[in-house]
Specification:
heterodimer; A: mainly alpha; globular; B: Sulfite Oxidase, Chain A, domain 2; 5-stranded mixed sheet; 9 helices
Chain lengths: 213, 309
């Protein structure tokens, strides 16, 4: 057994480990809330932490395909759906924190935010776009939609990720180190895809054998 | 200057070790004499003696000291609000002088311990509203800045006051990054600076000002957003021309010179209509001039406060 060809049971073990690890930020927040260790402004801390992990899981999810291709670790694909759902999970927590803890259902203020605050104007649809992806993440939905349409729909994740990074960039006051790091990583991940695509097109033109994405 | 330096003979230069030994001795001596004069100590956390209560109180509940001292913006120590408390340990607040100069008849370099005795210290409970839409209630210790201004006798040309904070990346690690242009600069119009509410603060909660809150001396202008209240001040400059503050310079469309708390004028990127008082769950409505309209609104009669944000 090499890293390229792992046993199915071994992959299941990895999956369980990643699942537990992905819950760690939430558990840490929960404990911090319980023992009152989230600082002077716990709501801000929860908002930032959940936002940070949403973007992190989006980037991790987007790195699965390039890493799988580069290293030939095909089993990685079996983690992708779960990681994507974790991005949606933390995004939902982030959105709910804003809705309940931050604005406390102050709908006029929320609407005003969405219309007038550029970082929310871009952040809100970035989250909304993740909802159809989460809904269509089941095997049944994949077969109902058909692989081609499903793949097309799930390209929305690129918009979500770009919107999420812009959302972060526009909200920081001055120190853009963190959003710039996310932007750089996302740029690399999308750049790799463009390179593959360009190569694919060349191959398509040169030979009869098409390369699937 | 350069020319003169070149003319100094090598033999006249004090060896480095000797220089530092002498400096240490002088610092020790200065410290000892200051200690002899002042029975009270001057380190953060020490109680300030003879602090009077004042008429400046509020019915609002005080923000716990733990929150006041562990959650604030002081970019000289990092851009996170938890950074100042972590990184302000290296700031040396003694010896410390404040140079007051510019359009004044009596320019003067004040030693910090002299400044502490310039006028009776009083406790004032003020609301603090950050431009980021959170707020606190802080019991500061100090006296009206006007007390200092009167003593240096501004000339007829003095229309503005500029506050310049310490610039020393060794003591203030955040200054190793050019998030803002250092040193931090802020300013007030003369009538704002002379207003009795404008406080020269040297303490909070009855104690010597903690480093992370702007030790050893800062200003507090309670009807303006927090960034107007310059910390760790080393120089106060009186001028005819309106100074450009660090935040205005970095983003003129977002941080104006006046920066009066105003729920009707949103920051371009977020609403200023409400604020989260630290320790409270629901947001409260932000008050015009942070609730000090009765005292200060007259300073701005006839001014367009949307334009002059």
């Amino acid at each position: 057994m090499t890293l390229k060809t792992l046993d199915a049971s071994f992959v299941e073990g990895i999956k369980t480990g990643v699942f537990l690890l992905a819950l760690a930020p939430l558990i840490k927040l929960g404990i911090g809330f319980y023992i009152d260790a989230l600082g002077a402004n716990p709501i801000e801390k929860i908002t930032r932490t959940t936002g940070y992990w949403t973007l992190t899981f989006l980037l991790i999810t987007l790195s699965i395909t390039p890493v799988r291709r580069l290293l030939g670790w095909n089993w990685l694909i079996r983690l992708r759906r779960m990681l994507g759902l974790f991005a949606f999970f933390y995004g939902s927590l982030h959105f709910l924190t804003y809705l309940v803890l931050d604005q406390f259902f102050d709908w006029p203020a929320i609407v005003k935010d969405i219309v007038k605050r550029p970082y929310i104007t871009v952040g809100f649809p970035s989250f909304i776009l993740m909802i159809p992806l989460a809904i269509t993440s089941t095997d049944r939905m994949i077969s109902r939609l058909g692989g081609k349409r499903w793949r097309w729909l799930h390209r929305l994740v690129y918009l979500s990720a770009v919107g999420g990074v812009v959302h972060y960039w526009w909200l920081v006051k001055k120190d853009i180190t963190n959003p710039a790091t996310f932007a750089l990583l996302l740029g690399i991940l999308l750049g790799i895809r463009l390179i593959y695509r360009a190569r694919g097109l060349i191959k398509v033109r040169l030979g009869p054998k098409t390369v699937s994405s | 200057m350069k020319k003169n330096e070149a003319r100094i003979k090598a033999s006249e230069i004090t060896p480095r070790e000797l220089f530092y030994a002498r400096r240490r001795f002088m610092q020790l001596a200065a410290g000892a004499s200051a200690a002899a004069l002042l029975p009270e100590s001057v380190l953060a956390g020490d109680k300030l003696a003879d602090v009077k209560t004042s008429a400046y109180t509020l019915p609002d509940k005080l923000t716990p000291m733990e929150d006041v001292t562990r959650y604030n913006n002081f970019y000289e120590f990092g851009t996170d609000k938890e950074d100042p408390a972590k990184n302000a340990g290296r700031l040396k607040t003694r010896p410390w002088t404040v140079t007051v100069e510019g359009e004044v008849n009596k320019p003067k370099v004040f030693d910090i311990d002299e400044l502490l005795k310039l006028a009776p210290l009083e406790e004032r409970i003020y609301r603090l509203r950050c431009v980021e839409a959170w707020s606190m209630v802080v019991p500061w210790v100090g006296f009206s800045l006007a007390e200092l201004i009167k003593r240096v006798e501004p000339t007829g040309n003095a229309r503005f006051v500029e506050f310049i904070s310490l610039h020393d990346p060794e003591q203030m690690p955040g200054q190793k990054f050019s998030v803002l242009e250092w040193p931090y600069r802020e300013g007030l119009r003369m009538d704002e600076a002379m207003h009795p509410l404008t406080l020269l603060a040297v303490g909070l909660y009855g104690e010597v000002l903690p480093n992370q809150n702007g030790a050893p001396v800062r200003v507090v202008i309670p009807w303006k957003y927090g960034f107007k209240s310059a910390k760790s001040i080393v120089r106060i400059l009186f001028a005819e021309k309106q100074p450009v503050s660090s935040w205005t310079q970095s983003a003129p469309g977002e941080y104006g010179f006046y920066a009066n708390v105003n729920p009707a004028v949103d920051h371009p990127r977020w609403s200023q209509a409400k604020e989260r008082r630290i320790g409270e769950f629901l947001k409260r409505k932000t008050l015009p001039f942070n609730g000090y309209a009765d005292q200060v609104a007259h300073l701005y009669t006839g001014m367009d406060l949307i334009k002059n944000f």
